[in-house]
What we know:
The protein is an alpha/beta fold and 192 residues long.
Amino acid sequence: MENVKSVLLVGVGGQGTILAAKLLTLGLMEAGYDVKMSEIHGMSQRGGSVSSQVRFGKQVLSPVIELGGADLLVSFEKMEALRWLEYLRPEGKVVVNDYEIPSAPVLSGAAEYPAGILDELCARASTIVVDAAAEAERLGGAKAMNVLLLGATIKLMGLESLDWEKIIRENVKPQFVELNLRALAFGQTLVG
């Protein structure tokens, strides 16, 4: 099953992780790939860990990425990157948003947000750090950071030739289409 590629998208509820995975899946399906996607929502309404696993290739038998099986780990929040790092292949890459969302224990004062996360990620894996929230805000709205990270994913997985504009236009609310198209294009420039 060498032809199967695995992308793990992780974040915190409310960041648009699942929408980004859905857009990726729809684009891959339209391009003729066999695609399997699975989601874990946890307490994803706001603040809980969220993960989406997208596997694609000629024939995909399982939607689940095993430990050490992800070609690409895309993290919308930096602590989540560290939490899911064991799923990355030794030769895999990490794209991490330099963004913090304090967990409930941190907010209550029972714990501190760990320091040095980005340094640890860079020491343990091939890591690209982006400030997706600031870049999306600069493009017109911080809510587009998920599609900006999707753009980085598309570039790193060599999927630029697919019709992503069509996928965005068909699956994003009309008032956000242009912003998301700009974010998608800009995200590709951050990693290549």
